[in-house]
Amino acid sequence: MKTWFKSGSPWIWMTAGTVSVALIAVLGLIALIAWRGLSFFWPAAIHEFHFSDQERQVLIGEIYDREQIPVTRLVDAGVDISHIDGEFVTRYLVKVGNREFVPLDFTWILEPDIVRQETPKDLVMLERARNGNFYGYLEDVLENGQTVVQDPAAIRSVLRERMRRALQLRDEGLSIQRGPIASINYQLEQLRLDRRRLELRGEYSDEAEAELQRQEELLREEYRAVEQELFAIRADMERDQVVMRDMRGERVTFSMSLVLDATWANDMNLLQKWGYFFKQIGKFVTEDPRESNTEGGVFPAIFGTVFMVLLMSVIVTPFGVIAAIYLHEYAGKNNITRMIRIAVINLAGVPSIVYGVFGLGFFVYMVGGTLDQIFYPESLPNPTFGTPGVLWSALTLAILTLPVVIVSTEEGLSRIPSTVREGSLALGATKAETIWRIILPMASPAIMTGLILAVARAAGEVAPLMLVGVVKSAPTLPVDGNFPFFHLDRKFMHLGFHIYDVGFQSPNVEAARPLVYATSLLLITVIVGLNLTAIGVRNRLREKFRSLEH
Amino acid sequence: MAGSQTASNFSAGKLRLIKDRAARFGVTLGGGMVLIALLLIFFYLLYVVLPIFRPASITPLESYALPSQGTTTVALGMEARAEVGYRLTAEGDIEFFNLRTLDQDRQAGQVLKSERVSAETVTAFARSHQGNGDYVYAVAGGRVLIMRPDYRITYPNDVRLVEPEIRYPYGQTPLQLDPEGRDIRKLAFERDGDTLMLAALLADDTLMVARLVGRQNMLTRAFQWSTQRGVVNWRNGAQSARIEQLLLTPNLRQLFVQSAGTQQRVHVIDTRDVQNPVLQQTIPFASQLGRISAMTLLAGHSSLMVGHQSGHISQWFEVSSDGHREYVNVRNFNAGTAVEQLIPEQYRRSFYALTAAGDVAVFHTTSSRHLFQGQPGGLQLSHAVVGPRANHMLAQQGEELHVLTLRNEHPEVSWHGLWGQIWYENYDEPSYTWQSTSGSDDFEPKFSLVPISFGTIKAAFYAMLIAVPIGLAAAVYTAYFMTPSLRKVVKPTIEIMEALPTVILGFLAGLWLAPLVESHLPGFITFLLLLPLTIILAAFLWHLLPENIRNYVTDARAAMLLIPVVIFVGWLSFSLSPLIELMFFGGDMRDYLTNTLGINFDQRNALVVGIAMGFAVIPTIFSIAEDAVFSVPKHLSNGSLALGATEWQTLTRVVLLTASPGIFSAVMMGLGRAVGETMIVLMATGNTPIMDWNIFEGMRTLSANIAVEMPESEVGSTHYRILFLAAFVLFIFTFAFNTVAEFVRQRLRDKYSSL
């Protein structure tokens, strides 16, 4: 035993243990997020619990969580435990939905209280545009207050058909709101700014005013027509109603325009469940958020993240590559080079929040404020570029990710054998030509790697963005159909910030938690995917040059 | 023919040469951009931060003759934007004039309105605090007249026009303060809504306090007053003393009576029960300080400032000790020569002292800063007032009025104020406090960077406590013991952790780990204790295995072997957790900690942050340390092994020593990352700026503080600049760590290349 200890073998095993811990931590974390995130899309069984209690006899909902707690904790909380045996008790967290009818849409129940628990096939979960999910039994479908269900057996298909109609109208309404109405509002705002611009330049005259008013009147006219159309669609949406019976046994009627989807989760076979699963994933990535981000999809956040990251790539790539070329091809062994190297290391090490502070002060207030005074005096005091926006976010993150691109590109450059350079120079090419024609094409996978890593870093960075342009809910995307199409001054939504905002700032964290896991899964998939791609590209590059060397 | 070709070749060659030069220049410039970017960040942060340490300046702007010569000024004042000023005289006149020249029609000093407020002889005069802006003239027969200068502001043609007017909120006929009609010799006044409080020294030396509660008749708009009066017995043994000055607090609860006799004293009178005012405290002043020559309340009305003939100025506020509250001398200032007038600012804790030598001295109490001293423009000012926005000063010199521009933007900050212990108003003792904002305008901001720097260090400490052992040990094993094929998989897997967005780690820490730690605290602790024991046990069991199996599954594969062991230990301790809790901690460990051990427990605490941030730092440390260990030349370790050392001996005596600079650099880099990390701390702690090493309590770090407060701070304000300072501190911290780490790494590289 003593000799065994002396051999150092236990210590080797200890170090091995830390590797296992680290591995378990990484894989466990990814597995946890994947499991929780994916189960958000899987159709959960809807349970009906029966109690012996007088005040609540039936509870309908999804089981959200279960845990074992010591009975003593219940005693401390003042719960009557006369009917409970043993020292531990299982309790369930049940999502009961029906937010407007019950005080809390989540409730804890104790297992011993349950008399009977079943999953009736008729239980339906309605996804609604307001107030979250509704759980209950489908009773009737109405048109203008009259029932349209002739055959009770076909009630589900009637509901689906009416729902489809309402959804179609809803889409039409939305496209009018986002298309013509948004465009008219934008043009009206432009006219207001035109007038102000004329005033500032001293070119304002009665003729100009008459022309502006004529255009405004035209736009208003158009607006009224579109508005009529929209109102007609909205009125049409209210035609149908759905009648439900909830867990209190009461009949509840609400408009079909609120119903987005109906799911009989207990009456699905495996194939249907998978179908539902993929449909939900599709909806998650393509739909807009609802109910202050706690429901619906994350499309604007995906769009904002991608747009910002692309913008950043456009900025960071040339600078990063040029700096790397300088460091590897041109720089002599002098103090300036050494200082630049230290600058690169430090740019990589400076906390991201410091970049946020710098971006806010320098880009937003100083550069943006100056731009506003020069180019957009007509909209002052409302800032155009003098306020956080997507351009400033991209610029800030470009500085933040600059070292990533530099380091990766430089590594690629150093892998190119010097014989290649010498060969090119010997054939009479200038240094610039050698770099442009020979070195850069060979280093392009390395540049690609750097760019991918930079994108992965930028996509996950939140702290600086909180200061320079990200918002919890942006009314418009940074790209739309109004000239000049790319609106770099707009604020945007971001997946990482979405996680922070929904997980920590939303009023109903419990309800939003699965959505946060799903968003995290999406983000992690993108980032880990990007990183693996970068590693793959890098390894291929290494193999390629290894063969070149021999 | 040939010649022209040569020429074209030559010109093409020249063009190529020019292109080459241009490329060289452009690339060099591009490379320099990196350095410029870093310098830009550094200097921009500095540029925003520096103004907070700038002293105040006072420069003359305008001067003009008094509107009415030969009269005595009792008060000066100005409108919020310092466009119109006014002067009240002892004769009972008010004069409004243009304070500054705004345009051709509005010249400085031009009298806008002049009116006699009181036709009768004025016996005393008093004013309320600046926020109310009331003035009171006492006239013969123990009566008082309350008036208020007011402005009607209009915007004809988008030009701000201020039209002064005089308001008598309680009528133009004086109110009868003393029913017996004695003349008032000295007066103090404050108003809270329509409740007035007056303290008056009457002709027969009686000190009377009176509270008048007014109720307005809705129809006639006349006031009906219910009045309570009381006589103050302030002497407390000082029979020969006489009253010099009276001062009321705006909350109508206290009266300060300054008396001069054999000794200089300030008596604090509790006036909550007006009919029976109580002497609460008597503050004696040392005689070498000289006569008390000025007394005022600071903004916020908690601090009493007392100025002396010797130039000594002392600050006093109430501190509770042994269950009762008492005025305590908190700090002192010195204006050089006799203090003639003390002028507080309306919102901040700055004050201005005019001295007998004609100097203006500017101080700030919280930061103990002496911001200015001297005679601006050579003027010897006597009577002065500071505008509500503290950017203009109106003062009198002889028969002239002077308007001075005041630049005193960031008096709240001093080196001592940021890093030292400060005694704040309403605090019982000096403390390190960060509290930047509050609901009220005249709140005393508390900008101590100590608690948030402490939080940063605490968070980094617990993170490093977890990350350094795991990161380094894992690096050593991976680089030195692991089979190359396994290493190829393990290294990128651990390194991918670095790419995980910290917002996800923070979210998991706050919403998954924190509740888990809270409910399974005993399990966590058991896991930490059990894990090393089990690993050693596993190693021993493996050691007992027959040789041929051991040769197949070598040390090099131990990490894989241990994965199920670690998972099992984790599962075991967590499932045992409720049982342990029940057996040792009465079913609820959290409750036990709080009630039995007296340790505070926050759900989002340093333990959670340590684990989550440790997790984020592990890959940084692992990656650099692994490279360092791996690049130790093989002939060194082979030599050691050949001389008979065991693997472990070789590792500790040869490999680690050689790689130590790299390991040091890894730890530094990790520390740099832990110090600056924002999202994890923001989400996994309660963000309360407390100073306590307790692992079960939260903290607020510099970075989280910036993220929380930056969006709501006003651009250019002191708060904004201090947040920039916090960013600057972070920048310098990490700059130091990274630069040192880089230098060490460079040295290491040079050393290996020689080996």
From TrEMBL, chain A:
Subcellular location: Cell inner membrane; Cell membrane
InterPro entries: MetI-like, MetI-like_sf, Phosphate_PstA
Signal peptide location: none
Membrane-spanning segments: 12-35, 298-327, 339-365, 385-407, 438-459, 515-537
Gene Ontology CC terms: plasma membrane
Chief localization: membrane
Annotated ABC transmembrane type-1 domain residues: 302-534
GO molecular function: phosphate transmembrane transporter activity
Example GO BP: phosphate ion transmembrane transport
Coiled-coil regions listed in the entry: 181-229
Organism: Aliidiomarina haloalkalitolerans
Membrane disposition: Multi-pass membrane protein
Entry similarity comment: Belongs to the binding-protein-dependent transport system permease family. CysTW subfamily.
Pfam families associated with the record: BPD_transp_1
Keywords noted in UniProt: Cell membrane, Coiled coil, Membrane, Transmembrane, Transmembrane helix, Transport
Highest taxon of the lineage: Bacteria
Keyword check for Transmembrane helix: yes
Protein's name in the database: Phosphate transport system permease protein PstA
Protein's UniProt keywords contain DNA repair: no
TrEMBL record, chain B:
Domain of life from the UniProt record: Bacteria
Cellular compartment(s): Cell membrane
GO biological process: transmembrane transport
Matching InterPro entries: MetI-like, MetI-like_sf, WD40_repeat_dom_sf
Keyword presence, Secreted: no
Keywords in alphabetical order: Membrane, Transmembrane, Transmembrane helix, Transport
Membrane topology of the entry: Multi-pass membrane protein
Domain ABC transmembrane type-1 intervals: 453-741
Bilayer-spanning residue ranges: 25-50, 459-482, 494-517, 523-546, 558-586, 606-630, 651-671, 720-741
Family of this protein: Belongs to the binding-protein-dependent transport system permease family.
Protein name: Phosphate ABC transporter permease
Native source species: Aliidiomarina haloalkalitolerans
